[in-house]
Design brief:
Length: 315
């Protein structure tokens, strides 16, 4: 009897079973309350809306697997968006050159975070909170608090479609598939799991832990730049606050999907389910006419519950 109970608890704790069930239940309930939810157009809208969050969640998952975190992603999205738009619409720079400069900025920001954390053995949480203010400040200086237009550049990435499928959705699927292969099948990804499990053991086994951490932060910065590119292309303009809240939503999605603050745990599929759950909740609340302030409360409750379940599983 005890063994059967343990197996049941294990199944409940398995995100690959639990999350799809919750997502299906939410869809059924929302569809029964408002039939508009059950339309192809609405589901495509959900995927388009969560594309940026999903791209960013893949980067956050990678860091969580390594036992780290980056809370500067939201501010970095704002900085990258402002730089891209300012270069194109104000400075008159060629859009493709502006895009390269934006990606260089994103990679450089990731490198800065990684260098500070590895060189001075600082906590990623504290360091990235600090650098988020730096990135936000630079974005405000560049934009002077005004809207920056992308000048109609790269419309296909943000609003284009291949058939019925929105381009942001295609980018999301490609990024998550690449992250799945990266974490599961490459030596680099497997060593990130080892580092997340026990960095001291990883170091003693010959893994250059500092170098791997630095490269992971650089890669995370690059993925953040891609998220900023998709977001800016979709909305056509930028403000320093473009990415506000995205970092916490990405963290929540990864944790909901089974990642852990302690490292060495989490899957791309689980993270995808976490992103989809947040997207469906947000979309359903909009369709049902729930006030935006209450939506924020619901999101906070979901995050707290996810952290509680993560802690219970770790114990």
């Amino acid at each position: 009897m005890k063994e059967k109970t343990l197996r049941t608890r294990a199944k409940i704790g398995n995100e690959m079973i639990f999350l799809p069930v919750v997502i299906i239940a939410l869809c059924v309930i929302s569809g029964l309350i408002n039939p508009r939810f059950f339309t192809v157009a609405n589901f495509l809208t959900i995927f388009q809306q969560v594309a940026v969050l999903g791209i960013l969640t893949s980067a956050m998952l990678m860091l969580l697997v390594m036992g780290a975190i980056d809370l500067s992603y939201g501010a970095l999205i704002g900085l990258c968006s402002v730089i891209l738009c300012n270069l194109i619409s104000v400075q008159g720079v060629n859009p493709w050159l502006a895009l390269l400069i934006m990606f260089a900025t994103a990679l450089g920001a990731g490198a800065l975070n990684g260098l500070i954390i590895t060189k001075f053995k600082c906590e990623p949480l504290i360091v990235t909170i600090g650098t988020s203010y730096i990135y936000l400040g630079f974005a405000q200086v560049i934009s002077q608090g005004t809207y920056q237009s992308i000048g109609g550049a790269f419309p296909f990435i943000g609003t284009g479609k291949i058939g019925l499928i929105p381009m942001p959705m295609i980018v999301l699927v490609i990024v998550m598939l690449l992250m799945f292969v990266f974490l599961r099948y490459t030596p680099f990804g497997r060593k990130l799991h080892i580092i997340g499990g026990n960095s001291e053991v990883a170091f003693l086994s010959g893994i250059p832990v500092k170098a791997y951490k630095l490269l992971a932060f650089v890669l995370g910065g690059g993925i953040c730049g891609l998220a900023a590119f998709v977001l800016t292309s979709r909305i056509g303009s930028a403000l320093p606050t473009n990415g506000s809240g995205y970092e916490l939503n990405a963290l929540a999605a990864a944790i909901i999907g089974g990642a852990s603050f302690s490292g060495a745990r989490g899957t791309v599929l689980g993270a995808f389910f976490g992103v989809l759950l947040l997207g469906i909740v947000n979309n359903a609340l909009n369709i049902l006419g729930v006030d935006a302030f209450y939506q924020t409360v619901v999101l906070g409750v979901i995050i707290v519950i996810a952290v509680i379940f993560s802690n219970i599983k770790s114990r």
